[in-house]
Amino acid sequence: MLQNLLLNLIIIKIPVVFFAILLLYSGYRIRPEMPLYRYAIALVCGGAAVLCMTLPVVNAGGFRWDLGAIPIVVAILYGGRLPGAMAAVIYAAFSISGAEGQFGAEMLSLASALAYPFGWARRYERSSLTLKLIGGLGTSIAHYFVTLNLVLYLSHTFDANLSEDRWTFIVFQVVTIITLPIVSFLIEQMYILSTYQERLREAERLNMIGEMAASIAHEVRNPLTVVKGFLQLLSTSKDERTRLYMTTSIAELDRAEFIISDYLNMAKGQPEEHREPLDVSNLIETAVQTMTPFATMQNIELRALCEPGHFVLGDTVRFKQAIINVVKNAIEAMPEGGIIEVQSFRQEAEVIVKVLDDGEGMTPEQLGRLGTPYFSAKEKGTGLGTMVVFRIVESMGGKITYQSEKGKGTQVAMQFPAVG
Q: Under CATH, which architecture does the 2-199 domain have?
């Protein structure tokens, strides 16, 4: 019995190692809903459950007691309901052949472990680590007591077997209860490690763009200042048209200088100088109006579908800049024209802003490199516009995610803490 228990514990590590590979060496963090990842999670966790089933720790009257329910719970909590259901079906299919008349009892035991995770799956990601561990412990305890009663009910020789190896069974009881919380803790730590690694890469990118922006600002500001000075002299001309041209040129130079300074501030990670409640729908509609002429030239219809009355905390100019940059990227990704929708709505304590297009889309590899200086899905892009969007959203305490599929378009979702 102890040997099979140790083998079960080794098998349980398979999903843990698998999630480590997904988090650290693939695009799973970017697109966890991708069918390839879901099928892989179902197969790996379902396979681990079947392996546990073939090595039962307690076999009472044809009833097998093992740790096979744990990989299926892991599939539900970290992959979603669909991968969990697929893993459970795999486990049930293999269970039929060897259940020896106790298939119904084994499925009842499995259901006791899966009931709470299935109901909790949608809220699990947003829960705290403490709540996740308490939930895992509660699930294990419920599963343990249901299974123990089934074993006692079905077995006629179990008491005799237990008297021969009582201590091993006591160890198994303890392991059954604590294994799921331990597995959850290990996977959560890998999520945290993956987040830290992403932040480290982000810090390196910010450092690189900071050095580059400082160099650009120094080299470009000087000639701009000279040109601006000469234009100011020419603006005193008596010709009204010449004065108009000079005034317009000076205004554009001022805007260019502001943009350079803004890139520099973003790169250095300086906090916003002024933060105030922003009317999201109003600013989005303003940004859409600004970009509508450019969209029309590309045969693109630009729509704003915004719920009124939602506010976030930030800087007006930078928030509009982020929206304009994302919309501009969407327009440039649609050479054949089409429709772009900019949506905003309230979801619990957050205001969500989405930009959806049906353009060229991106591959998982391109999604993974978004925000990297000099990387762009466009032939002549620099990647700086997307980098600034990331920085603006983060400075407002928000989060930005991209979902895209090659040839099917892109969805950009920006989540901001709601005010009021």
A: Orthogonal Bundle (1.10)
